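Data availability (excerpt). The following record was deposited with the supplementary files.
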Amino acid sequence: MSESIIRIAYLVAAVLFIFGLKGLTHPKTAVRGNLMGATGMLIAVVAVLVSREIVSYGQLAIGLGAGVVLGSLLAVKIQMTAMPQLVAVFNGFGGIASALVAAASYESIRGGTPFVEVLAADPSDTLAATTSVSVAAAGLVGAVTFTGSLVAFSKLQELIKGKPRWVPSGRVVNGALLAAAVALAVIMVVNPSTTVFWAMIAVAAALGLSLVLPIGGADMPVVIALLNSYSGLAAAAAGFVLQNTALIISGSLVGSSGLILTMIMCKAMNRSLANVLFGGVGGGAKVEGPSADEVYAGKIKSTSSEEVGMMLESASRVVIVPGYGMAVAQAQHAVRDLMNLLQERGTEVEFAIHPVAGRMPGHMNVLLAESDVPYDHLKEMEVANPTFPQTDVAIVIGANDVVNPDAREVPDSPIAGMPIIEVDKARTVVVIKRSLSPGFAGVPNPLFAADNTMMLFGHGKEAILDIVGALKED
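Predicted structure:
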């Protein structure tokens, strides 16, 4: 295949990536955007394999077939509740792939000659010098992404505890590991050495573990967004190693969009990017506060689905606040049925979405879109909060820390300063939970004991279906 055709293929792939990413910004165009991005990747993969004559057409067909089968199985089998874990694994795969590309470049860069030998023979060789910098970047960032993503997956899958694990002098350790990894990368560029390269990979892998282990499960949305950015940066560096335009562009898009999303998530969590980078999210020293018994003693008011149904009958405005508990209970379809029933009765129904509700960015939006809840019913936190004083009933299903008023009122709380959905300002609040257990932050929620709050204990989906049944009986 001629070089000009390959360049055109890369250009088409890059354009599809850009328009695909733009399509993902709105639910109405998300499916089309996803297909455009996937098509662009297919074009890029085929172009690079054919142009470099890496494999035969038969091997190419086998590889593509295996990928289609595996991807289809994942798409069908993976539940929406497990999607955050899958994203974390994909981030890790992207990171290790970039690190492996960097490692393979030590074997050959030009005519089978290791680039370290090329650079040693001619230090002014621009290609070898540029490649050495790119290899260092791809290896370092890729290794951090891989091990960090494994920890994120393990926490989300509850293979290890999701609570923050604060290690004394943790920031000092992270800073030392980062400095060591960068120093080894510089040494590798100035004086190429296979030993130094693998030492850098080992230190970077340790840094990935050290960065993510102290971070609590409640902050995994921020971590996933950041690791996604890391995987894109590693891919872009690998693109420079391979001198592949499509990989450079796609990696840059993923890296930049992931970083933008990380900043948005940091703002929603009232954290700084530096705090995230050095494992400070949710990993600070524990602040002693009142126990759950002190907060809840004698103040919890239980309710029933029939009583909630009666409250909703007379409500003119209802706001539903979903959280990870809704995802676990797979209650999104039942919630949609409740919305439709209330709207048929003339009740205004909206959903208040916190940016970090769930375990990945946009988790609640995807679940509700899956159940055909109109997108214009989903209101961002900043839009929804001013409306709560005029809201008759706020229904909280599976959310905890993101509706905890301590974030607003208690300066020394572990979640102090985090913007919350202010459901406590509604006339009546109904919280659907199995128990009074705390959220990932591990602190009691005084909302549960508020004068205007009623607790409906039970499985999220069953509780919503019981409310729907109670409304239909009246």
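Summary of structural features: The chain has two domains: 78-277, 292-473.
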